[in-house]
Specification:
Elements lengths: L3 E4 L5 H12 L3 E6 L6 H7 L3 E5 L5 H15 L4 E4 L5 E2 L7 H29 L2 E6 L12 H21 L4 E8 L12 H4 L1 E2 L7 H10 L8 H13 L6 E4 L4 H17 L1 H8 L3 H14 L1
Parallel strand pairs: 1-2, 1-4, 2-3, 4-6, 5-8, 6-7, 7-9
Helix pairs in contact: 1-8, 3-4, 4-5, 10-11
Length: about 290
């Protein structure tokens, strides 16, 4: 049985790949983007199976209207892909208030407006699958990515909470965490060159040079392979809450989580002290920590 999709940020990159993959297997798609002229070739190829909708995710009313038009046109919703977003690059000290707000308006609030618009329909159906595009940047953080990380880490927590809220209605939630994919002329986009850049402070020039020498070292994934993987994900009877797309960042994520656990473990005595435990209890906590290490 074919599925009805609603995809944001569908005019390029992974969003475009997701739309094409769904259409190519006979599904129908409401493809949204700020500018839909780049979708005309898909309209020519797939006709009424694609509904191109001009929409900015930061415009809450426009999001609600796009969802309404989708349901009116196709009759239901099965897969919602929250894909729209961009990367703001800059040291935390360099960010303007507007740059940080714009990053959160698009990446975080835009996703919330989509979720709030589709959920009444999904609850009424008793089914549906929300796919949230996060990033490896939602799991680990590097210098000059503070704004982007803030938005993606927020999405991770938001969607984990959402999954627990909507499970009883038959609605599934999956957070997809891609690594680098060759979405720009066959290359992995370089955020230091292609992202939204804050006005640089010379104090961070050395850091920028060091990071520039390391960017692009991770292998870039194939966007069409990511789209095929997404099809398997939305067809799964019991999809995961989280899934990494691509292998390049997996060792880094494993190490980051191991380091966090080790750090918390190393400071358990202070954690017990902060809780106000008696000295004996604090000693017991230290003994348990030593026995388990």
């Amino acid at each position: 049985m074919s599925k009805i999709w609603f995809v944001t940020g569908s005019s390029r990159g992974l969003g475009r790949e997701f739309v094409e993959a769904a259409l190519s297997r006979g599904d129908r798609v409401a493809a949204t983007a700020r500018r839909v002229d780049g979708l005309q070739d898909l309209v020519t190829a797939y006709g009424e199976a694609i509904l191109p909708l001009a929409m900015d995710v930061t415009d809450r009313a426009a999001v609600a209207e796009a969802v309404r038009r989708t349901v009116d046109h196709f009759g239901r919703l099965d897969v919602v892909v929250n894909n729209a977003g961009y990367a703001q690059v800059g040291a935390v000290e360099e960010l303007t208030e507007q740059e940080l707000r714009d990053q959160l308006e698009t990446n975080l609030f835009g996703a919330v407006w989509v979720v709030q618009a589709v959920l009444p329909h999904l609850r009424a159906q008793g089914s549906g699958h929300i796919i949230q595009l996060s990033s490896a940047a939602g799991l680990i953080a590097v210098p000059l990515g503070g704004a982007y990380h803030a938005s993606k880490w927020a999405l991770e927590g938001l969607n984990e909470a959402l999954a627990g809220e909507v499970a009883e209605f038959g609605v599934k939630v999956t957070i997809v965490e891609p690594g680098g994919f060759a979405t720009r002329n066959g290359k992995n986009p370089d955020p230091l060159a292609n992202g939204h850049l804050a006005t640089p402070d010379p104090a961070y020039d050395g850091l920028r040079r060091r990071l520039a020498s390391m960017t692009g070292k991770q292998p870039a994934g194939d966007p069409s392979a990511a789209a095929r993987a997404l099809l398997k994900l939305v067809d799964a009877e019991n999809p995961p809450l989280r899934v990494l797309f691509g292998q390049g960042f997996y060792p880094m994520v494993r190490q980051a989580y191991a380091d966090r656990l080790r750090l918390w473990d190393d400071w358990q005595d202070l954690s017990a002290e902060a809780h106000g435990l008696p000295d004996a209890a604090a000693s017991d906590a230290g003994a348990v920590r030593a026995a388990s290490s």
